[in-house]
Amino acid sequence: MQSSTAIQQNTFADDVHRGLSAAPKFLSSKYFYDDEGSRLFQEIMKLPEYYLTKAEFEIFSEQTKEIYAAFEAETGAFDLIELGAGDGTKTSLLIDFFLERQAEFTYVPIDISAEALKFLTEKFAKQFPELSIQAEQGDYFRTLETFKSKSARRKIILFLGSNIGNFGKAQAQDFFKGLRAVMNTGDRLFIGFDLQKDPRTILRAYDDARGVTAEFNLNLLARINRELGATFNRADFSHYASYHPIDGAARSFLISRKAQTVFVKALNESFEFAAWEPIFMEISQKYMPEMINELAQASDFEVVENFSDDKQFYVNSLWQPAEKTE
Ligand SMILES: C[S@@+](CC[C@H](N)C(=O)[O-])C[C@H]1O[C@@H](n2cnc3c(N)ncnc32)[C@H](O)[C@@H]1O
To answer: What is the pTM of this model?
Structure first.
């Protein structure tokens, strides 16, 4: 596993600087997952309100055979690359089935969180002693560039857990175009999309009754305090979630409960907050089924097959590079 703590630390500081200097202020959700953040996210996934994990788990457990067939996993060796792998709970269902079928593959989980990757690789080493794993720590935007040179084998790329929801629509298209550029004809991309549904169901998933999602957001302030020497007082911020049914986006904010100044030692800079000023933390874009086709087309892919849960809450969509029409 490659590690570059110094570089990452700079990137984290730079990103915090950029976010807290902007109007409106924002923090990047990719930094949620330190040790405590990864633990809290595992708790979120078990909450009754967080239907996303249950829906994707249902698809993976009940349609494993169909997914395996659609991947054409029997046609030869491949790399199973997972972007933002997290704790890999759903992926373990596929891996179990693939190993049983003696598919020839290496699992390549990529995650920005060293803590999440450590947890995942230790868990999988115990659970699947015969599995070949090549974990990579880093931002998947950066590791994209090295994809082509990585191996000549077929690539099946997983992007699960509605990770794509954390991108705005234009950013999602740019991201997939970037992926398309490093994929060959036989490669496949398997993406988890959360669908638009009763707005109340969506809002509850980001504003649970026990306040675990609030803790998860506030934990990023604690991380900035610890790693960048900041003076955030968590009690002076509160979590606020919204869902907008017109643009299909759930958004999370931390709201400054009073006028206050926060000093960040690593930046040697203070940041002013007005009373009730928001920090934008995360977008979770929800999709209509036709938006998935449009996004695939706009990024030069074709939809091979869609897999949905019983309630039609969620879709795992399998894409292949579109034939070039020159
Ligand atoms: C919402 S969790 C989903 C985890 C897993 N895919 C699942 O379905 O349960 C997002 C994961 O993506 C990782 N992540 C977020 N942004 C990333 C980035 N830019 N590069 C690499 N990993 C990232 C986080 O560290 C976290 O483990």
So the answer is: 0.93
Q: What are the tens digits of pLDDT across the range 67-124?
A: 999 999 778 899 999 999 999 999 999 999 999 999 999 999 999 888 899 999 999 9
Q: Which of 91, 92, 111 best tests ligand 1's pocket when mutated (most atoms within 8 Å of CB)?
A: 111
Q: Whose CA is nearest to atom 12 of ligand 1?
A: 84
**CA dihedral over 45, 48, 51, 53, signed as positive or negative:** positive
User: Helix (H, G, I), strand (E, B), or coil: what is residue 311?
Assistant: coil
Nearest to 194 by CA among 215, 213, 157, 167: 167
Contact 199, 243 (CB under 8 A): yes
On whether the CB atoms of residues 85 and 124 are closer than 8 A, the answer is no
Q: How far apart are the first and last CA of the chain?
A: 40
At residue 151, the pLDDT reads 73
Q: What is the whole-number distance in angstroms between the Cα of residue 260 and the centre of ligand 1?
A: 32
Ligand 1 centre from 111 Cα, in Å?
A: 6
CA 93 to chain centre: 18
164-217 per-position pLDDT tens digit: 999 988 999 999 999 999 999 999 999 999 999 999 999 999 999 999 999 999
Cα(83) to centroid of ligand 1, in Å? 7
84 Cα to the center of ligand 1, angstroms: 3
